[in-house]
Amino acid sequence: MRDSRWHGKSPANQPLSWRVTALYAPDMPSDPPLLFVPVGTNDARPFGMDARERACRLAANAGFECTQAPQPGRAMLLASMRFAWDPAWLKAMRARPETMLTLGGEPVMAHVPVDANLAAAAAGLEDHQVVEGYELLPAETAELTYAELRKRERPFVMRLDPDDTEAVERAAYDAAYKGVTDALTLYLWRKPAFCLTRWAARARIAPNLVTLVGAILCVLAFFLFWRGNYWLGVLSGFVFMVLDTVDGKLARVTGASSKWGEVFDHGIDIVHPPFWYWAWEHGLAVYGRALDPVVATMVLWAIIGGYVLQRAIEAYFIKRLGIEIHVWRPVDSKFRLITARRNPNMVILVLALLFRRPDVGLELVAGWTIVSLIFHAVRLAQANERLARGGTIESWLGT
Q1: 143 phi/psi in degrees, rounded to 5
Q2: What is the spatial distance between Cα 362 and Cα 197, in angstroms, rounded to a whole number?
Q3: CA distance 255 to 226
Q4: In the chain, where the domains are located
Q5: 3-state secondary structure at position 49
Q6: 307-358, pLDDT tens digit by residue?
Q7: Nearest-5° Cα angle at 243, 300 to 160
Q8: DSSP H helical segments within the chain, as ranges?
């Protein structure tokens, strides 16, 4: 990776394009943690929150200690409240002492080391002037890699307008979205989920409450499928799937992420799909389309066994190779759009239900699960073969 550095105040000296790689891995603890200091004031209320409060919550989630005034003798990250930014910049700037993040030549953030002139840096942010001696990091050309969110893009930096926060809210919401996921999440309910996320944030609804409501609807869908009441079950499941998107985005855009919330959310995601398929199969008898017992057993074994094995392959890939299988090469990311996970499988079931053949839908899900399992098994074998030949396994998002 090329390291382009330049010093001085003139934006004309900026490089045309260069890249900062900032992997979203758990941060190593520091003693004491880097201070985060908001500079200036702003009456804007993105997502219904005070701009300073939101900035501090985002910083706290990134491992900073937020304080309202600079403290001499401590390294710190100063952030101008005239701007809104992707939290990815916090992690990128943490590792870059004596660096100023800029937008249009104006300073947005400054990493001030312990021995640096704190007053000069703070005055620079207040007066919208870069400070001599700092490496300038132009937000217009830098590009980060998000391992956590499985995407590579240029994180946003925007002016925070007190009279119109929607552009910032949309940018923050998009920044919280995974770049590699299923087609329904990525395209179908992206906009409705934004409206719900924005409303929930302004209503001060906690992400864990959204997860809880979703969990209730998830259980309700199970019982509706069990009784053969498929359309109501699909409706309940659909709302749950949308809320499953909202809770994580709400946590990220408001800085309300927590370990418990992640465990609660991901635990439900991992555990419930096999129960839905089991309930769907049981409901076929009530619906009048019961499968032969032997066929039903084979179908359930294919779906549930295939699901468990695919999850095991994904876990092994991460443990053995250090990256998620879905971000190895572009083909893996594209296949993730349609792989046999809950959302794509529900599309198959609903399409079959439109023709009043929920039994055929379940058989198709079984077939697609086997196809997806074979695809991932082959990709794992290819990765191991590459390692055996002395090659390396790296995500295409980081290249």
Answers
A1: -135, 135
A2: 33
A3: 38
A4: 11-145, 176-398
A5: coil
A6: 999 999 999 999 988 889 999 999 999 999 999 999 999 999 999 999 999 9
A7: 145
A8: 51-61, 88-94, 118-127, 166-175, 183, 190-202, 207-226, 230-254, 259-287, 293-321, 330-336, 342-354, 358-388
Q: Are 379 and 325 in contact (CB under 8 A)?
A: yes
pLDDT averaged per 10 residues, the chain (length 399): 33 35 42 87 95 94 89 90 94 92 95 90 92 92 61 82 95 87 91 95 95 97 98 98 94 87 88 97 97 97 97 94 92 96 97 98 98 97 94 82
pLDDT digits (tens, 9 = 90+) for 102-140: 999 999 999 999 988 888 999 999 999 999 999 999 999
Contacts of 163 (CB under 8 A, 6+ apart): none
Query: CB–CB of 363/292 below 8 Å?
Result: no
- The whole-angstrom separation of Cα 290 and Cα 300 is 13
Quote the CA–CA distance of 313 and 84 in Å, as a whole number: 39
CB atoms within 10 A of CB 81: 18
Q: Which residue has the tokens 């916090």?
A: 90
Structure confidence at residue 31 (pLDDT): 58
Distance CA(182)–CA(136), nearest Å, equals: 37
- 125, 107 Cβ separation under 8 angstroms: yes
Nearest residue to 328 (alpha-carbon basis) of 309, 343, 313: 313
d(CA 347, CA 352): 9
In DSSP notation, 274-291 reads HHHHHHHHHHHHHHT-PP
Triad 311, 316, 320: Cα angle to 5°: 160
What CA–CA distance (Å, rounded) separates 146 from 138?
18
Q: What is the DSSP letter of 246?
A: H
Question: What homologous superfamily is domain 176-398 in, according to CATH?
Answer: CDP-alcohol phosphotransferase transmembrane (TM) domain (1.20.120.1760)
Question: What does the alpha-carbon distance between residue 143 and residue 129 come to, in Å, rounded to a whole number?
Answer: 23
Q: Minimal CA–CA distance to 77: which of 3, 67, 86? A: 67
Confirm if 88 and 155 have CB atoms less than 8 A apart: yes
CATH topology of domain 11-145: Spore Coat Polysaccharide Biosynthesis Protein SpsA; Chain A (3.90.550)
CB neighbours of 331 closer than 8 A, spacing ≥ 6?
A: none
